[in-house]
Amino acid sequence: MPIKYFFTKLCMSMKKFHYLAILFMVFVFASCESNESNELSVFSVSANKKVTFSPGNLQYHPKNDKWRFAPNQYDCIGWDNKNISSNYDGWIDLFGWGTGNNPTNSSTFESKYQKFTDWGINKIDGESPNAWRTLTYDEWYYLIFERPNSSMLWGIAQVVGVNGLILLPDNWVCPKRISFKSGSHEKIGEEYYAEYQNFNRIDWKKMEDAGAIFLPAADARMGNFISFEQYRGFYWSSTCLGAEYAWSLCIMPFNVSFPEFNTNVASGLSVRLVQDVK
Length: 278
Fold this sequence. Notes:
A hairpin with a 2-residue loop joins strand 1 and strand 2. It is built from four helices and 15 strands. It is of the alpha+beta class.
């Protein structure tokens, strides 16, 4: 074989090998990034079940019949929820209990909410239907109070000017130069979220990249009346409590609990969905 031909073939083979090696490295890097991200954001909701949270609270656009997750974890609609109706040309994020099939139901009669339809049955942000679901009462309770090291994995805070609750994943590692304080304040008042701890946009991005979840204190709706003082937040569970009530997670600056009051099924509350980790 002529030497010139030999080296030409060798160079071509080396270029092909180099190209394949680069593809392999890119694939491995991308796979590692994906696995690491999933692992960072895993939360135990029972002794043998783990979930990941949606990237923001659930929102619905009635006129366009479109579902999405809030663009940022700290986003909440607030006062505009008073416009809830089937032809409203805007977003809402406070829903009556189990209104996955009727998100603009604003009736104040409990009889209109007797069957729970999960919001996860819908196509959200372009994903297939039934990709998401609502936590049960037992799962919320385990997440907050019973998973290993649970008392160290939640804390009230103000994030980018919004009051609420931070949840940390099971294998939490705090980012460098970031301080997180678990628990709640001893005083009553919306100003005590920020006094307890406050994260600006840059610091919150670091927390979020490490797997932290934020639940805004978006208060509640009853009919077309809105309470939006950023003092309280309520998140539905899929578990009913008799004909008139259902369990919800209640966030306040001095406490995180599951009250048997003020969770009337006709109340419009926040919804945060999850996916099961296979």
